[in-house]
């Protein structure tokens, strides 16, 4: 039943169609068998229970780092054709593993891997800061991702100004040269001072420009806010603190500066395109219990105290759509046990409109300094543990290079144990809007399902109805055989199929049904 309305058993076909519609959460809809054919008898299941081993909606992502040519492009000075070919290989590797999202670093250090009116071209394209690479990569990057049903998140570093403290070597148009008063030198890097309103305004302007002009699905910040403690000594923001501190303690003021930027970016992103998401991947430890009784049972560096990143404040304020803590430690690691951190973060988002994804250290697999990482089963065990916490809606892997390298064959194991089926992306919490229309004209032409393209649909989900006639076909991903970008699907398996439309947020339509006959 749904909304108290009973299922009507006028015919086996009607039962199948109505129950299938209920499983999708859409209105009751008839989906008759193809003309001249009779649908197989079905078992009308009133209460469909999803199997946690086969989540229908789950984010499965990968970070594609451009800084220092970590992932893409693999070297500076490659031709546009080679850059494009490398990127396509990365995406194809992701699709092969049934991943569904990419987080591409387009602004490593106040530079741009796209044609920006505010910041110079990145040196990681040509080898020379500010040099035009001869093409704008971002339209290609987004289009190729969407062609493969990969959600595209544009990854920005908010405060890093330059990897070179000698501003004379930066392009004349670089904001660091135009606004030297914005800068704080720390170690071998230049940072923009988070305490200056002008800096926040600049970052918001840069982000808003990308959201406005490019077809991105999300804006993503990493874990670099105030610099990580190291050999840089004290972060010299004394003058700004005197001017803007307003009697606050230095640490509280710094956290407030970051919180203000996060809130401004969130407002700007949704004010520009309401369906674009904004999220952050903070350092994995908010605070330890030794520092705060409500912190995690850990003993590592605290993001709250060391880099002034207060993820709890962003969650409570609703100024992020998701958090993706970087839990780069194995189970049983004394200072930061994965088993202690997952429940802590799950509890933080409970009852909020903020999604929780986990940043996974694929790059650590095979490392010998921590015994757990020498075992191929450690990372798959993380995903198994995540199932115990319904707030965990997916995982993102650092980084793309390791997806291809497959250390200890761990990606093969992840696919076998966790990603054997595709998955739809989680719906943004609190997001209102209607699902797209269901596919019309669905029919089988030989072994190919074809239907009419649906306005507003970016992709389509294809489900195979079990031979038992089970009506809960779409409850989880056990019967999800593909997510395709165009209005057709070729199969070698005869039987009954359901096809639904998905909009860019993966809101799902009611299903249409057709049968592929045995050859």
UniProtKB/TrEMBL annotation:
It holds the Pfam family GHL10. The keyword Signal applies. Residues 58-367 form the Glycosyl hydrolase-like domain. Residues 1-25 form the signal peptide. The keyword Ribonucleoprotein does not apply. Keywords: Signal. This is Family 10 glycosylhydrolase. It comes from Nonomuraea recticatena.
């Amino acid at each position: 039943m749904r909304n108290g309305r009973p299922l009507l058993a006028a015919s086996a076909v009607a039962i199948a169609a109505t129950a299938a519609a209920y499983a999708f959460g859409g209105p009751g809809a008839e989906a008759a068998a193809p003309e001249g054919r009779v649908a197989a008898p079905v078992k009308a299941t009133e209460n469909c229970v999803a199997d946690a081993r086969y989540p229908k909606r789950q984010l499965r992502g990968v970070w594609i780092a451009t800084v220092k040519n970590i992932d893409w492009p693999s070297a500076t000075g490659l031709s546009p054709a080679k850059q494009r070919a490398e990127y396509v290989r990365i995406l194809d590797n992701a699709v092969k593993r049934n991943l569904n999202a990419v987080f591409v670093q387009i602004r490593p250090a106040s530079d741009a891997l796209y044609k920006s009116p505010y910041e110079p071209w990145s040196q990681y394209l040509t080898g020379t800061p500010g040099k035009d690479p001869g093409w704008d990569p971002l339209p290609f990057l987004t289009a190729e991702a969407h062609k493969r049903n990969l959600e595209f998140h544009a990854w920005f570093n908010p405060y890093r100004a330059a990897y070179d403290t000698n501003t004379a070597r930066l392009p004349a148009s670089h904001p660091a040269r135009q606004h030297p008063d914005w800068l704080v030198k720390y170690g071998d890097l230049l940072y923009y001072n988070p305490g200056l309103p002008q800096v926040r305004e600049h970052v918001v302007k840069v982000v808003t420009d990308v959201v406005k002009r490019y077809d991105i699905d999300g804006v993503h910040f990493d874990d670099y806010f105030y610099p990580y403690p190291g050999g840089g000594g004290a972060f010299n923001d004394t003058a700004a603190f005197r001017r803007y501190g307003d009697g606050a303690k230095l640490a509280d003021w710094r956290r407030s500066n970051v919180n203000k930027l996060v809130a401004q970016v969130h407002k700007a992103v949704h004010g520009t395109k309401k369906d674009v998401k904004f999220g952050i991947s903070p350092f994995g430890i908010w605070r330890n219990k030794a520092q705060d009784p409500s912190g995690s049972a850990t003993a590592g560096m605290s993001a709250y105290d060391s880099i002034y990143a207060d993820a709890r404040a962003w969650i409570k304020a609703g100024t992020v759509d998701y958090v993706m803590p970087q839990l780069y430690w194995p189970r049983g690691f004394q200072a930061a046990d994965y088993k202690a951190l997952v429940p802590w973060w799950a509890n933080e988002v409970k009852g909020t409109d903020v999604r929780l994804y986990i940043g996974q250290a694929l790059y650590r697999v095979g490392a010998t300094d921590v015994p757990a990482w020498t075992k191929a089963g450690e990372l798959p065990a993380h995903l198994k543990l995540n199932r115990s916490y319904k707030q965990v809606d997916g995982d993102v892997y650092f980084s793309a290079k390791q997806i291809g390298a497959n250390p200890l064959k761990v990606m093969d194991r992840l696919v076998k144990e966790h990603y054997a089926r595709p998955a739809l992306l989680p719906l943004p919490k609190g997001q209102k809007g209607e699902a797209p229309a269901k596919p019309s004209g669905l029919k089988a032409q030989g072994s190919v399902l074809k239907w009419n393209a649906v306005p507003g649909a970016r992709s389509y989900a294809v489900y195979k109805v079990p031979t038992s006639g089970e009506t809960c076909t779409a409850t989880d991903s056990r019967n999800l055989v593909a997510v395709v970008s165009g209005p057709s699907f070729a199969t070698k398996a005869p039987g009954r199929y359901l096809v639904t439309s998905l909009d860019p947020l993966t809101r799902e339509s009611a299903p249409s049904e057709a049968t592929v006959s045995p050859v």
